[in-house]
Amino acid sequence: MSNYWLEELISNPRDFIDSFYKQGKYYQKIRSWDKSNKKRKVPRTYFVFTLDEEDAKKNATFSTYEFGIKEHMINRGYLCKAASLMPLTPLKYNLLKLAGVQIEEDVFIAPEITLDGVLRGWTRFRRGSSIGWGTRCFNHLFEEDGKIIVGYIDVGEEASIGGFVSITPGVVIGKKANIGAEVKLGPGVHVGDHAKVGAGSIITPFVTIGEGAEVMMGSVVTVNVPPHSKVQGNPAKIVQDQIRDRKPKLDLIINPNMEIEHIDKTNKSS
């Protein structure tokens, strides 16, 4: 028993250090769900629970402090804000990683993005992805009647996110997906590999955009979109069942780490 603290420190130093700080009343509930969820064969991407009546009446900022460790959340918030104002330098990425954002190789992150500093490690930008100017990523969201939804945000390899996109808890964006400017992705939305969402579109909560599907500009999607189909309108309806492969276009936001030779070969082959 005397070596228990040493084993905890070696196996999970962050949790060991956290145990010395005052923890919010919902901290253990969220951590318990996170641990058990990761053991599931198919982990869920979000978790919904209800705040106590007294917390539901409070300002959202004060209720948020009950989700974790107040001092750590404030520090992570400062780190994310400082990093968002910086140009593309190693210091920018190091600050974001220190704040708990998971960033893989060759990721492009534009200035003025907003990242949620409440839940450490719940946002991941995978290899080669591009995050546009003014993008907002939130791992927690207050709903009506005191309900709160928390969830992971996962941006896939070589996915492109346009400027001023809103990404909420539980959103998963697939490999090489393309999200246009000013798109709003509701909680629990899944965007499949190679799918495209046109600028100004709204994807309502818990909708799935199938692999290779295309959502036209300004559409409001309220139901699942089948793979390789095209939808348009408000509410969006299918206008084309099967989309043929077309010559790839360069995005408005281009990851500077992409290999030019790879782009040339792709254009020639098509």
How does this structure look, described?
The chain has 270 residues and is α/β, with parallel strands linked by helices. The chain has one domain (25-242): Hexapeptide repeat proteins (UDP N-Acetylglucosamine Acyltransferase, domain 1). It is 26% helix and 22% strand. It has helices at residues 4-11, 13-18, 27-38, 53-56, 60-64, 70-84, 90-98, 260-269, and strands at 46-50, 102-103, 108-109, 114-115, 123-125, 130-131, 136-137, 140-142, 147-151, 153-155, 160-161, 166-167, 172-173, 178-179, 184-185, 190-191, 196-197, 202-203, 208-209, 214-215, 220-221, 230-233, 236-240. An eight-stranded mixed beta sheet has the order 3-6-11-14-17-20-22-23, with no helix packed on it. A six-stranded parallel beta sheet has the order 2-5-10-13-16-19, with helices on one face. A six-stranded parallel beta sheet has the order 4-7-12-15-18-21. The longest helix is centred in the N-terminal third of the chain and has 15 residues, at 70-84. The protein is globular and about 60 Å long.
